[in-house]
């Protein structure tokens, strides 16, 4: 075995050990985000515990996890793919198998091509990837009822708007299209009807 061959194997082993750790982190993180709500509950709870009840927090987290499910599953699958590739690379390098290393390089090449395609799509048409997420947020806003409502969509919007100090999706006009939005409010015993934008001045700004 030549020194060059030995050095190449060591580099491949080190490279794959590093990315194996990355793959494990992605798989664990994606798995927790997809199938375990407790980390998300704790993360949001630290910021929102004084503004929302435990029941509201639970509803909001469940809704958020439903939103993030495809994204989390994608992270999990990406982690598994990286783990499998790294294991193949390690086996090929440790066993000094030319066949396994060739398979490893081919699979790695295909993965790099796929990543390049994704980057090109995002660079040229970012809305293609962002619009689905915005569509989910828009639909949640359309189903909004009020700041006191206990339905999932209302609770999710309330938690997001309070934590981000914002109103609606791009702005509060989205609630003009919300069929169940409660426009009547009572102030000092007087019931009046106000626009969504005016209502959220009280709600978001306190």
Automatic annotation (TrEMBL):
Alphabetically sorted, this entry's keywords are: Glycoprotein, Membrane, Transmembrane, Transmembrane helix
Q: Where in the cell is it found?
A: Endomembrane system
Membrane topology per record: Multi-pass membrane protein
GO cellular component terms, semicolon-separated: endomembrane system; plasma membrane
Give the transmembrane region(s): 12-33, 67-94, 101-123
InterPro entries in alphabetical order = Tetraspanin/Peripherin (IPR018499)
The record's listing under PANTHER family reads: TETRASPANIN (PTHR19282), TETRASPANIN-1 (PTHR19282:SF216)
The identity of this protein, by name, is Tetraspanin
């Amino acid at each position: 075995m030549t020194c060059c061959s030995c050095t190449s194997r060591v580099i491949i082993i080190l490279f794959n050990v590093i990315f194996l750790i990355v793959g494990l982190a992605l798989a664990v993180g994606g798995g927790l985000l997809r199938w375990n709500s407790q980390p998300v509950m704790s993360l949001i709870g630290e910021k929102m515990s004084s503004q929302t009840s435990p029941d509201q927090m639970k509803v909001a987290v469940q809704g958020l996890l439903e939103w993030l499910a495809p994204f989390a599953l994608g992270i999990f699958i990406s982690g598994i793919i990286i783990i499998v590739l790294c294991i193949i690379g390690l086996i090929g390098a440790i066993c000094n198998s030319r066949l396994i290393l060739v398979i490893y390089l081919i699979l790695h090449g295909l993965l790099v091509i796929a990543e390049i395609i994704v980057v090109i799509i995002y660079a040229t048409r970012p809305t293609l990837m962002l619009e689905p997420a915005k569509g989910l947020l828009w639909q949640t806003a359309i189903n909004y009822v009020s700041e006191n409502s206990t339905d999932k969509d209302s609770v999710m919007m309330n938690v997001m708007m309070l934590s981000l100090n914002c109103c609606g999706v791009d702005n509060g006009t989205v609630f003009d299209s919300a069929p169940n939005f409660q426009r009547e409010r009572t102030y000092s015993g007087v019931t009046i009807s106000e626009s969504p934008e005016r209502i959220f001045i009280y709600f978001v700004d306190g």
